[in-house]
Structure formats: C-alpha cells, structure tokens
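Subject: Protein record for review, amino acid sequence with backbone structure tokens
How to read it: Take the token row as a discrete description of the fold.
Enclosed: The protein record, placed directly beneath this head.
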Amino acid sequence: MTIRSTYALPAMLALLALVADPALAHSGDGYGGGFIAGFTHPILGWDHVAAMVAVGLWGAFLGAPAIWILPIVFPLVMAFGAVLGILGVPVPAVETGIALSAVVLGLMILFAVKPPIWVAAVIVGAFAIFHGYAHGTELPATVNAFAYAVGFVISTGLLHLIGIGFGLLVRWPGGRVAVRGAGGVISLAGVAFLTGMA
C-alpha cells in the first residue's frame, strides 16, 4: 500500500461525509439530534472550516510528528473550550480569536514557518479554545451535550483529514507551492472574517 493510498481513503470519506445529506432518523432530543447538530456545526461556519483545514495543512507541511499531534491537540483543547462555553465562563473576543486563527495559521503555511512542535501545539491549542467555546455557547438547549460534543469533535477531525490530505502534496515541488498558496487563501479568508467582509 502506498503512502498516497493510505491517506486518500480517509480524505475521500471525509469529503463524502461533508457533501452527503444526513440521515435524520433521530431528531430533536437525544443522541441523534445532539450528534447531528454537533457534527454539522463546524462545517456550516466557513471561519471554522478554514481554521480546521489549516491545522491539518500545517501539520502535513511540518511533517511527522506534527501531522498527527496538531490534529489531536486541536479537538482535545477544543473540547475544553466547549466546556468553558457550556459553563458560561467568560472568554473575551471569541469571534476575533476564531478569525485570527485562520489568519495566523494561514500565514504559518504561506511562509513555511517551522517552529518546534511544542510551539506549534501551543499556537493550535490557543486557537482551539476559541473554536470550542463558540461550539459550547451555541449548544442547543434541547440536545444531548455529550452527543453534540462527539459530533463536533468527529467533524473537526474530518476537516483536519482534508487538510492533511491536501497538505501531503508538499512532497512534490508544485504541490509545495499549492499548499503554501492555500495557506495564503486561508489567511485572506481570516482577514475577511476579521473585518466583517465575509
């Protein structure tokens, strides 16, 4: 099995999950409503999508072990941020933090910044708090909080996988340019979110 085929299947499954219509066998209260609400929440906000794809892209750009550490750190810390949001603990400038995550992560990719792994993990983790907090505060009152959290963590992981899949193009010279260009696009999107243009 080649490296390309190892990553192609998860990337294709993630893409299918994003474009497929959900089977709404369960709705409202309980596991189905909570899971579906949580799963769709990250993919319906372009600011979240941009940042989460950027985490996977940057991890792939940095290579091992960052390719797996960053996409693990983000959802773990994001879950902590969600708990803060559910509990109503005040976190300032959440929307600004979310927009800045796309700006900063996009710039890291564009300029091929390669910090030590712990620095990259701290950057990703800091932004994950804002994303998780937003998910937590927007938790619908009628859904199961645990199922909702499982849904948004899985959805986040799939977005990271899409970023990783695209980021693996860095192994080729033209692909490296494409990945860095994608970082620039993500950063510009973050500026648009920050200035209210998006």
